[in-house]
Amino acid sequence: MADEDLLGDGFYKVTICTALSSVSSPPAAQLNAGVDIQSCVMRDGLQIEPNQEGADNSSLASKGPTQRAGSPSYSINLLCKKKKLTIEDIAYNTLVPGMDVWLAVRRNRPNAEPWEAGDPAEIYPVQCGLRKPQQTQWNEVQKFLSTMFNYADADIDAVVA
User: Residue 19 sits in a domain of what CATH number?
Assistant: First the structure.
């Protein structure tokens, strides 16, 4: 179909990498060597909120306040499931507070498929923050929220090499 919508079901790959040589063209081998955590992230748990403030460019010649687009920033949180067995608690064991990692996100292909050259990707150099336990609810899995801090320029239009 020419007008078919891209569904999100199973089409999110979320990978944590401890080594990445390029943010704009990350090598597929390095992405595939990372830890896939999409099965640990809650359905509504990939929370990446882009922000952009205005940069004042007013001068004495301006007749009012003027602005240009400022630098982007990202508020990043991952809401993850907590596992019963420590060895199976992949997200909790991977998102270690204080650790610098690269968060890689692919949104257009089944998550079971490996990263390949040409894949569009979002790459966020981040430092993992606290793993915050979430309030327990009846008939729900236990969860924790990992806040991530973008410590260098992200590339939301990266292409896998």
Answer: 2.30.110
Asked if the model's pLDDT at residue 37 lies above 90, the reply is yes
**For residue 91, how many other CB atoms are within 10 A of its CB?**
25
Q: Which helix (H) or strand (E) element contains residue 120? A: strand 120-133
Tokens of 87: 């060895």
Cβ(103)–Cβ(126) below 8 Å: yes
Q: Is residue 58 in a domain?
A: no
pLDDT in tens, 68-78: 998 889 999 99
Determine contact, residues 119/104, Cβ cutoff 8 Å: no
> What confidence score (pLDDT) does residue 2 get?
66
3-state helix, strand, coil in the chain (%, to 5): 10, 45, 45
Asked, for residue 64, whether it belongs to a domain, the answer is no
Q: At a CB cut-off of 8 Å and minimum separation 6, what does 12 contact?
A: 38, 41, 46, 105, 106, 107, 111
